[in-house]
Specification:
This protein has 426 residues and is mainly beta. Helix content is 10%, strand content 49%. It folds into 2 domains: 67 residues, no CATH class; 250 residues, Porin (Beta Barrel). β1 and β2 form a beta hairpin. The chain starts with a helix and ends with a strand.
Length: 426
C-alpha cells in the first residue's frame, strides 16, 4: 500500500542519515550501496531517494568546478615555504625638449615591472634559511627611450607595420641567505649592496612617480640646443643621485636591528666594498627613515674612487612629510679633478581623502654639480600625485618634471616630462 511504501522510504532515509553522520566524522564520502527505494507502482526503473540525491549533488558540483581552481604555488621541499609576488607598472610618458615632443608607452623605471619568488625554511625559532629570485621585465623603460628611437619597422610576418620597443629582461636578485635574530643576516649572490638605496629614503608616498633618482624618467633624452639641434648631453649624465653601488654579485652581512638601527657591509665581485647604516623607527608622532653609506669603487672604476650618500625622510601623523638626500664622489686620476655632487629635497602630504585609499601629494627640487664636466649645473623641479586603490592593490599616479641645465659652451633648452600610469601589485 501507499502507506507502507512511505514508511519504507522513511526507514531508508534514517539509515542514510546515520551513515552520513558516521562518515562525515571520518572525513569520507558515503558509498553508494545496492539498496534502493522500493519502486512505486507504474513508475518503471528505481528512483534515487531525496537523501541520496542530496548526497550526490555536492560531489557532482565539486567535479564540475575543480578544474577551474588554480593550483597554489607550492615548494618542492617538505618544510620550505614558497611565495610568488610582483608587480606591473605601465605609464604614458610625454616629453618636450624645446625642439621636439612625443608621447611614449613606457615601463616606469622608478619601480619596474618584476616577478619575485621567495623560498624559506625555519629550522628553529632563531634561524631562517632562504632564497630569492627576482627578475625585471621592462618593455620601453622610461629611463631608456630617446628622441631618435625607430618606433615603426616592417614586420614581414604579416606584411604590416608594428611598434617595436626596447625590452630589458634582467636579474635583480638571485641570492641565498641565512638570517638569525641573534647574529644577523648573511646573504650570498646577486642583490642589493650595503649602500644601495642609501640616497632614497622616502616616506612621502609619491616615490613611484617622483624620486631622488631623477634619471629614471627620461634618462636617455638628450638636451636640445636653442637652435633646434641636439647636443650629446643626456639627462642621466648630469642628474645622478649617486645612490651607493646598487645591486651586484656580492657577499653581504647585516647586523640585527637594535631600536630601529642596523649596520651592513658588502664585498662585491671585483673587489669593490661598502658599508652603511639604516634606521627606521616611529618616535612620538613622527615616522623616521634614514640611511647613510660609504662605497669604495677604486678596484672596479677608472674614474670614481669613493662615494658618500645619505638620505632622511620624516612624516608626521598629520600626513605632512619632508625628505632630503645628497651624495658626493671623489674622482681618481689626474684628469678627473672635479667633485660631482647632488642634493635633493621634497615636501609631501599623505591622507585618506577618498574612501578607497590614501592620496599622496608632493613637490620636490633637485640640483647637481660637476657630474659630467666641471661647471655643469643642473636643476630639477617636480610635482606629483598618487592615488591608492587599496582593494585593487593598485596605485594611480601622475607627475610633471622640468629639467634645466647650464653646461659650459652650450645654450640648452629645458626638458619637460609628464608621467602618468598605474602600478598593480600581486
Amino acid at each position: 500500500t501507499q502507506q507502507s511504501q512511505i514508511a519504507a522510504q522513511q526507514v531508508q532515509i534514517q539509515m542514510l542519515s546515520r551513515q552520513v553522520q558516521q562518515l562525515v566524522g571520518a572525513g569520507q564520502a558515503p558509498e553508494r550501496t545496492a539498496a534502493t527505494v522500493p519502486v512505486a507502482p507504474g513508475r518503471g526503473a528505481a528512483e534515487i531517494s531525496p537523501a541520496q540525491r542530496a548526497l550526490e549533488k555536492p560531489k557532482a558540483d565539486v567535479a564540475k568546478t575543480a578544474h577551474r581552481t588554480p593550483a597554489p604555488v607550492a615548494s618542492g621541499g617538505t618544510k620550505a615555504s614558497l611565495s610568488l609576488s610582483g608587480q606591473v607598472n605601465r605609464a604614458g610618458l610625454f616629453y618636450n625638449d624645446g625642439a621636439t615632443s612625443d608621447l611614449r608607452s613606457v615601463d616606469n623605471d622608478n619601480s619596474s615591472t618584476r616577478i619575485r619568488l621567495k623560498g624559506k625554511v625555519s629550522p628553529s625559532d632563531d634561524l631562517t634559511v632562504g632564497s630569492t629570485i627576482e627578475v625585471e621585465i621592462e618593455s620601453n623603460s622610461s629611463r631608456s627611450i630617446t628622441q631618435d628611437d625607430n618606433k615603426s619597422v616592417q614586420d614581414t610576418s604579416n606584411d604590416g607595420t608594428r611598434n617595436t620597443s626596447h625590452v630589458n629582461f634582467s636579474e635583480r636578485t638571485i641570492e641565498v641567505y641565512v638570517d638569525s635574530k641573534k647574529f644577523g643576516k648573511l646573504s650570498l649572490g646577486q642583490g642589493s649592496t650595503a649602500s644601495d638605496k642609501t640616497a632614497e629614503a622616502d616616506l612621502s608616498g609619491t616615490k613611484v612617480v617622483a624620486s631622488s633618482d631623477i634619471k629614471d624618467v627620461g634618462g636617455d633624452l638628450f638636451f636640445a640646443r636653442r637652435d633646434g639641434t641636439f647636443s650629446t648631453v643626456a639627462v642621466d649624465t648630469v642628474f645622478r643621485n649617486m645612490d651607493g653601488m646598487s645591486r651586484a654579485d656580492r657577499i653581504r652581512y647585516d647586523t640585527p636591528s637594535y631600536q630601529g638601527l642596523r649596520a651592513s657591509t658588502s664585498l662585491s665581485d671585483g673587489g669593490a666594498w661598502d658599508a652603511a647604516l639604516h634606521y627606521g623607527q616611529k618616535l612620538f608622532t613622527f615616522n623616521i627613515k634614514a640611511a647613510a653609506g660609504y662605497a669604495n669603487m677604486a678596484s672596479i672604476s677608472s674614474s670614481v674612487e669613493t662615494q658618500f650618500s645619505g638620505s632622511l625622510s620624516v612624516r608626521h601623523n598629520s600626513g605632512l612629510s619632508f625628505t632630503v638626500a645628497g651624495a658626493v664622489q671623489d674622482m681618481s686620476g689626474a684628469a678627473n679633478d672635479r667633485d660631482p655632487r647632488f642634493v635633493y629635497g621634497k615636501l609631501g602630504y599623505k591622507a585618506k581623502l577618498l574612501k578607497f585609499g590614501h592620496t599622496a601629494l608632493s613637490a620636490d627640487y633637485g640640483a647637481s654639480w660637476d657630474q659630467s664636466v666641471n661647471g655643469a649645473e643642473g636643476d630639477s623641479m617636480a610635482i606629483a600625485v598618487v592615488q591608492n586603490v587599496t582593494d585593487w592593490g593598485t596605485e594611480l599616479y601622475a607627475g610633471f618634471r622640468r629639467l634645466k641645465l647650464d653646461y659650459p659652451g652650450l645654450s640648452l633648452d629645458e626638458i619637460d616630462t609628464v608621467l602618468a600610469g598605474a602600478r598593480v601589485k600581486f
